[in-house]
Amino acid sequence: MKIVFAGGGTAGHINPALAIAGYVKLRQPDAEILYIGNKGGMEERLVAQAGYEFKSISIQGFSRKLTPAGIKKNIVTAKKAITASKEAKKILLEFQPDICVGTGGYQRSSNKDSRKNGHSYCNSRTECIPWCYN
Residue 24: what pLDDT? Predict the structure, then answer.
């Protein structure tokens, strides 16, 4: 079984993914785990410490400030979102996961595109419990 995890930004998004991955590996030691997260983000360090493969995409959050600097940041963020979606799609096509699990953060939204390619996608928030969608 091949599983992609995506999520990051805070330990509250990363640690649940790592806990799920650890449980999967206990139950199915031959499972292949890939984590997709932000280059240079906290997830890159925590995933490496946990011993899982990590692929990075470049993404950032939108600014809530309507200042010139905030608007400029949002233009950059929109461009990064498009690029990140393409990067995530490439990673998913190469890895060919059986399921993708999102645990929050900006990376998760790029990987929701996995549904379009026939992969199961599970968001770990309440809509995932008790069901996942394909």
Answer: 95
